TrEMBL record:
Transmembrane segments: none annotated. Gene3D superfamilies: Ribonuclease Z/Hydroxyacylglutathione hydrolase-like (3.60.15.10). The keyword Hydrolase applies. Residues 38-239 form the Metallo-beta-lactamase domain. This is Glyoxylase, beta-lactamase superfamily II. InterPro entries: MBL_superfamily_lactonases, Metallo-B-lactamas, RibonucZ/Hydroxyglut_hydro.
Length: 262
């Protein structure tokens, strides 16, 4: 089967609790437990075309929630033999620090983002309201630079941004959160990113504790399951350490940090 090779890179990690990250978890009457929370970005390759979904961030500079570094984004890309300047497209699932921290590395790429994400964060930035938020002016500057250079593509609806690569704005966790559907070598993958951090959220349609619109988040979870059925697709939650139990490690020098999803 043709299609993208999809590799997940774990650049950081932390351990959290179900009760800490699942909205109103106590109301489900189920035991609490640890969750291995991976911090990932994804490298999609089809021949010479290289797409990144999200970019990671520099944990050694500042860990926001006690994240532990696993590998830096530049080092991981070197292991994967990817020159950031050869990346043609970067899809940003949303503008939180752990998803766009290294966006500035990809100076030649078209950046694909949700229009609602852009309006929300640039509004906050211009009004001086970024204190205590999950993005800094430094993060948004990389988006702004892409915009100034004519490389920013803002989407308002389901859009095939390249052959085999479709984004769908869903909001919820963040106003312009995007789902990404990739036609991979092993079939379609729904890359949920932070529309669904963990498998529990997909299986039970349980919201995450952090959201800008709870109803939108619930609708996004329902949509993920409907799309998975309609398109016979596999869903990849954005931060779940158990993804690494379900898919094989990539061979070669990146084996310790890279998982083959498709
Ligand atoms: Zn995240």
């Amino acid at each position: 089967m043709t299609g993208f090779e999809v590799v997940q890179v774990r650049y950081g990690e932390r351990v959290t609790r179900k009760s800490a990250v699942l909205h109103e978890y106590a109301s489900y009457g189920q035991p609490d437990g640890d969750l291995q929370m991976d911090y990932n970005f994804w490298v999609l390759r089809d021949g010479s075309r290289i797409v990144l979904l999200d970019t990671g961030y520099d944990i050694t500079e500042r860990d926001w929630l006690g994240e532990q570094p696993v590998i830096s984004t530049p080092d991981a890309l070197r292991l994967l033999d990817v020159d950031p300047l050869d990346v043609s497209t970067v899809v940003t699932s949303h503008f939180h620090y752990d998803h766009i921290g290294h966006l500035g590395l990809f100076a030649n790429a078209e950046v694909v983002s949700g229009v609602a994400e852009h309006e929300y964060w640039f509004g906050k930035w211009h009004r001086g309201e970024l204190d205590g938020e999950f993005a800094t002016a430094g993060h948004l500057e990389a988006v702004w630079r892409a915009e100034k250079e004519g490389r920013l593509r803002l989407v308002t609806e389901e859009t095939e941004v390249a052959p085999g690569l479709t984004v769908i704005p869903v909001g919820g966790h963040s106003p312009g959160e995007l789902l990404t559907i990739v036609e991979s070598r092993s079939g379609p993958l729904i890359m949920a990113a932070d529309a669904a951090h963990f498998y529990e959220q997909i299986e039970n349609e349980w919201p995450f504790f952090a959201f800008t619109d709870l109803d939108e988040m619930r609708r996004a979870l329902a949509l993920i399951n409907r799309l998975a059925e309609e398109r016979n697709a596999t869903v990849i939650p954005g931060h779940d350490g158990r993804v690494r139990d379900r898919f094989p490690a990539l061979g070669g020098p990146a084996a310790a940090v890279a998982t083959v999803l498709g």
